[in-house]
Amino acid sequence: MGKFKNAFRGLQDPRAANARHDLLEVLVVALAALLCGAESCADMEDFGHAKEGLLRRFLRLEHGIPRHDTFSRVFRLLDPQGFEAAFRRFMGDFAEQLRGVIAVDGKALRGAFESGRRSTPLQLVNVWAAEARLAIAQRLAPNRNEVAAALEVLELLSLEGCIITADALHCHAKMAQCILDRGAAYVLALKENQSALFADAQALLEPAAKSKQAEQALTAVHGRDEYRHAVVVRAAALARKHDFPGIAAVGRLELQRRVAGSDQKPIVRYFLLSKAWSPARLITITRTHWSIENQLHWVLDVVFNEDRARNRKDHGPENLAILRKLALNMLRTHPDKASIRRKIKRAGWHDAFLLSMLAQMR
Prior knowledge:
By secondary structure, this protein is of the alpha+beta class. The chain has 15 helices and 10 strands. It folds into 2 domains: 2-79 and 315-361, no CATH class; 101-296, Transposase Inhibitor Protein From Tn5, Chain A, domain 1, CATH 3.90.350. It has helices at residues 2-8, 23-35, 41-50, 52-55, 68-77, 80-91, 146-154, 173-181, 195-208, 237-241, 279-289, 291-302, 316-333, 340-349, 351-358; strands spanning 101-109, 122-129, 134-140, 163-166, 185-190, 214-221, 224-234, 249-259, 262-263, 267-273. Strands 1, 2, 3, 4, 5, 6, 7, 8, 9 and 10 form a 10-stranded mixed sheet that branches. Helix 6 (80-91) packs parallel to helix 13. The mean pLDDT is 92.
């Protein structure tokens, strides 16, 4: 548990000084439970009793297994920013130097809403290292303001040499400047919410779209054929005209899908680029961005049942979201080639496999 202790030992225990269960031991039991499929604090207690003999190999558990209300109280009271900072320190051992595409996107915790306000669940902004396939940071969106949360979380990260991608909500001057200040480049989706900039980008790109700068044909992708056509045009003058830092080029990507032999209406997307990448590179970057949906958000909802989690009080939803990402990262970095779902089952069934998973924390 050396790596885990080093990363989390500075975390302040929010409970009274006479708390019976050691904070780090509570966190380790909770994490091990998630690795084996637990979804609630009650599950964590049940897991602890079922695996008490195994847990005592590396934990003291002086006062036995914590009760479910102890797990609940810890996650409700724990400072989420301190917990997330410890999470980032721990993940630093797995991804010592970030590189490639770093995707930024928001995700709602559908089950985490105040009583009587079902339409306003908790909103998080997640940061995803696409090449490493690791969640590296999260931030609560204050009053569901994803823009503010994204700026806050990027300020905390070392992003030298990375390419930051984000949807049109984050296509604004402050975001661009924040990314450049961190030593990174950007590919930001551009839509009509930036009306004047969008119109100028269209005027540059539409004539160029008639030429076939880059084409990529894909077959049998999720039961459909896909064809992509991208163009990139240098457009440094737009940075001065629209007071938008760092614009070097604009890009256009046209996606044509054929499902069951029938062509669907083409989808056209536009992007602001801080470097004049080739059209082929633009296709790769934009495809890589969507792994945050397929490999992070989808897995959290379908495998970890995050959207159906019932934690709503205090900091519980935010802290447990961090713990799920930590569990997912550990499952991903384990060398076994099985799927995430199979790894979770094997960890629950075979003590040796669970121990090999936890050994990554040494």
